[in-house]
Specification:
446 residues, alpha+beta, 6-stranded antiparallel barrel, 4-stranded mixed beta sheet, 11 helices, 30% helix, globular
């Protein structure tokens, strides 16, 4: 058999490429058909439900049930079939999904505002009284930009680079009820508005609820530490226990003769032995914490007065907390601790750095006609640069754009800036930072 000529080899290569493309198209068509079949089944179920609740005269059977509205609402609540009403909508430095962090801790400088609507409460600011005592809050919201209501049992998290896992083992937005949960830092509260940072929500996100973050209840590590160190519980309510650590006057003189010139009497034990250094430092911290409001608290000057002080105070209440053993710990999936997608090094071109420096901070009062762009949320160009590094270092591209797409340019919006960058091997470089809606002619990207 004679060898193939070069022309035949090129034709074979082209045919192979066309076959590969056709196979991919067939696969996409099958997936589209499966999605259409699932949507068709859901529509049939909804039609069957509507028919089952309607009689032949066209009237709704529920209109004839002699049940009061309150009972109907109670039944719906017990069955979990309720209609949610947003308490407010997020105003965020992220206006679109592209480039928005997938987790709140990825971009620390990211900022947002949440105004509680008056349609929920007549006085929305009353609902926020006391919340200023917390540093972080849980935000329960809706993924309103999913684009569709369909969902699958298995999804492809970006960190797994195309591998499939169960949807409930991920934080994918494509879920049966499209509910999201994020932990945000509470910067301040002004009237009915919360100022947040460390967020991963885009502008217009409907918020369903706000809850304070309490480490003692929400963090297993904190609970384990409290169980293993019960001295950390109720410190402010148990001031009298510190009196048990004071020495009597004779013991103090004895210690002074021994050459111990420590001025803090809390580091001595009522018995005839000295506490370890770790216990001494702990007691010092506890005493300084208790006495921070009153630098010179009254002291009992004798043994009899010490005993009177102890008797005069009620015993500290015993806090009943769940007990977690010494081996209690939290575990996460291996692909969370060691993701298949590594973090990227982020750098700026000199031109992009100059453009970023032109932006004015959000809080700086400058004339509006100065011609310079202004941030709406971010407080400085340095904070904006840190936010850009946070977004790009986590590689916000989808699996398709990361593995198959040849176009390495990437665009996203941060606050009032449109950011253009490109991705290389292990790094991302910011090429330009321009104001949103700028009509200036784009310079050629090198």
């Amino acid at each position: 058999m004679s060898p193939l000529c070069e022309h035949c080899g090129e034709n074979i290569t082209k045919i192979s490429q066309q076959i590969s493309v056709m196979r991919k198209e067939i696969k996409n068509l099958r997936q589209t058909l499966d999605s259409a079949a699932r949507a068709h089944r859901k529509h049939l179920i909804s039609i069957q439900t509507a028919v089952s609740t309607t009689d032949f005269t066209g009237h709704d059977k529920k209109d004839y049930t002699p049940s009061s509205p309150s009972l109907s609402a109670q039944d719906a609540l017990e069955q979990g079939k309720i209609q949610t009403v947003p308490i407010g909508y997020i105003s965020s430095c992220f206006s679109v999904k592209n480039g928005t962090p997938r987790q709140p801790t990825i971009c620390g400088p990211s900022r947002a505002r949440l105004q509680v609507q008056q349609s929920v409460f007549n006085n929305p600011e009353h609902a926020l009284v006391g919340l200023e005592q917390y540093s972080h809050v849980w935000i329960i919201f809706l993924f309103h930009k999913n684009g569709h209501l369909s969902h699958k049992a298995k999804v492809k998290p970006p960190r797994l680079n195309g591998q499939r896992v169960g949807v409930y083992s991920t934080r994918s937005p494509h879920r049966p009820n499209s509910l999201g949960l994020t932990l945000a830092k509470l910067d301040k509260i002004q009237g009915d508005t919360l100022h947040l940072s460390d967020i991963d929500m885009i502008a217009g996100t409907p918020v369903l609820d706000i809850k304070p973050y309490i480490p003692e209840y929400d963090s297993p590590r904190t609970r384990t530490a409290l169980d293993s160190n019960p001295r950390l519980l109720g410190v402010s309510d148990n001031e009298t226990n510190l009196l048990n650590f004071h020495l009597d006057q004779d013991a103090q003189r004895e210690e002074k003769r021994a050459g111990d010139e420590d001025k803090d009497e809390i580091c001595r034990q009522p018995a005839q032995f000295i506490l370890p250094k770790e216990a001494v430092s702990l007691l010092r911290e506890v005493e300084s914490f208790i006495n921070k409001d009153d630098p010179s608290p009254p002291e009992c000057k004798s043994k009899a007065r010490v005993s009177d002080c102890v008797k005069s105070e009620p015993p500290a209440p015993i806090v009943d907390r769940p007990c977690y053993g010494g081996e209690s710990s939290t575990t996460v999936a291996d692909w969370i601790r060691e993701p298949l997608v590594s973090r990227l090094d982020v750098r700026f071109t000199p031109h992009a750095q100059e453009q970023l420096e032109e932006f004015l901070p959000a809080h700086l009062l400058e004339p509006s006609d100065c011609g310079r762009p202004r941030f709406k949320f971010l407080r400085s160009p340095e904070e904006a640069a840190a936010a850009i590094r946070g977004v790009l270092s986590a590689d916000p591209r989808s699996v398709y754009r990361r593995t198959r797409c040849r176009d390495r340019l990437f665009f996203f919006t941060l606050d009032t800036a449109d950011v253009t960058c490109w991705f290389g091997q292990g790094f991302a470089e910011v090429l330009q930072v321009r104001p949103v809606g700028s009509q200036q002619a784009e310079e050629p990207l090198q």
